[in-house]
Design a protein that fits this description.
There is one protein chain. It is built from four helices and four strands; from the N terminus they run βαβααββα. By secondary structure, the protein is α+β, with helices and mostly antiparallel strands. The chain has one domain (3-69, 80-102): 3-Layer(aba) Sandwich (Glutaredoxin). Strand 3 and strand 4 form a beta hairpin.
């Protein structure tokens, strides 16, 4: 794994871990992405509210949004391939990605 790109739904900040109603999944995802960065994985994360141009510039993301609406978010791409849509990686998937990249 060389790169992960996350297209998040509209959130109040880049990670969504601010404000009074934090989705408990978001701090875990932010931690997982930070660990992957520490193992040399290039991580990009785009928030629909703050970086809409990134969504518009990616043809696959734009097509999915046109066809399925914002409910399709988040979209997770690994090395250019869409691996998750409408959900974040669960804890086991995150651990697997970190293990895979610990040896690289």
């Amino acid at each position: 794994m060389k790169a992960i790109i996350v297209y998040d739904p509209a959130m109040c900040c880049n990670t969504g871990i601010c404000g009074p109603d934090v989705n408990p999944m978001l701090p875990r995802v932010a931690g997982m992405l930070a660990q992957l960065k520490d193992h040399g994985v290039h991580v990009e994360r785009y928030n629909l509210a703050q970086q809409p141009l990134a969504f518009a510039q990616n043809g696959e993301v734009r097509e999915l949004l046109d066809r399925e609406g914002v409910a399709v978010l988040p979209l997770i791409f690994v090395d250019g391939a869409l691996v998750l849509k409408g959900q974040y990686p669960d804890q086991e998937m995150g651990k697997q990605w970190i293990r895979e990249n610990a040896g690289e």
